[in-house]
Amino acid sequence: MDHKYQRVALNDGHFMPVLGFGTVVPEKVPMSEALKATKLAIDAGFRHIDSAYLYQVEEEVGLAIRSKIADGTVKREDMFYTTKLWPTFSRPELVRLSLELSLKKLQLDYVDLFIIHFPMPLQPGDQVVPRDENGKLLFETVDLCDTWEAMEKCKDLGLAKSIGVSNFNRRQLERILNKPGLKYKPVCNQVECHPYLNQSKMLDFCKSKDIALVAYCCLGTSRDSRWVDQSSPFLLDDPVLGAIAKKHKRTPALVALRYQLQRGIVVLAKSFNEKRIRENMQVFDFQLTPEDMKVIDGLNRNFRYNTASFLADHPDFPFHDEY
């Protein structure tokens, strides 16, 4: 972890800022908020923006980045932008097309990171989650190693500086790592990770392979009813986090973010509230003690907010494995 620049070295020689801004727009919030929030995030000091084809905000996010380049706030090379390959584009011949669709919406020449969103190929078409007339999930029999080769070509073409994966379990990661003729290792695995799901085994595995772990849902979740059970516990209301936050005169959210950074994890923080966006940058201004870290480790209960249950019928569903 490079604390001077607050970024981590990736296994391909590029660098990723350790604090990223997530751009999933919560339900009932207009898409235009993504433009406003991304501009606020860049003004607050965020240089890592995480988005995806699925989120349907790349036009707004691209406009925010370009406007901040145009007004002199940042240069393109200061920014680190991530997009993701949705499973309906898993066929090798569709991978580059997916990235080019994102680049067209963003009006950028390249992305800094292009990752496979889920290791579960789905039938291509207009439906994000394709189903037949009986509601059965329509999956594809695509070898993820073939998808990965197409990702490698995107890197060779300069359309993506780095390539990685998301929501892969250990077995699925090993399939890519053990692929004959592997040209580039995934630089990261982006997974749900927070004090209730601390992913310690996945973290150890990724560290042993020089793969960065990137955490989403670090603060629990926005409780979006489209994919989160509304009876889920509120992570930031946890009394243990509250007590540590009080001790450091910080918020429970900052403690949850700081916990991950001190474990060597890249964190994605999402907020559409200007005060909280600015507040999240304070994560670099304090340090948790080894005792604090141990106490927060003890909160782990292997609880997943984003269960991706709408994909649970898929033969490659990643969350059946322990990690």
From TrEMBL:
UniProt KW Oxidoreductase keyword: yes
UniProt site (Lowers pKa of active site Tyr): K84
Swiss-Prot/TrEMBL keywords: NADP, Oxidoreductase
Keyword NADP included in the entry's annotation: yes
Active site: Y55
Coiled-coil region(s): none
Positions annotated to bind substrate: H117
Domain named NADP-dependent oxidoreductase: residues: 19-300
Stored Gene3D superfamilies: NADP-dependent oxidoreductase domain
GO MF annotation list: oxidoreductase activity
Family membership noted in the UniProt record: Belongs to the aldo/keto reductase family.
Protein name in UniProt: Aldo-keto reductase family 1 member C4-like isoform X3
Organism: Dipodomys ordii (Ord's kangaroo rat)
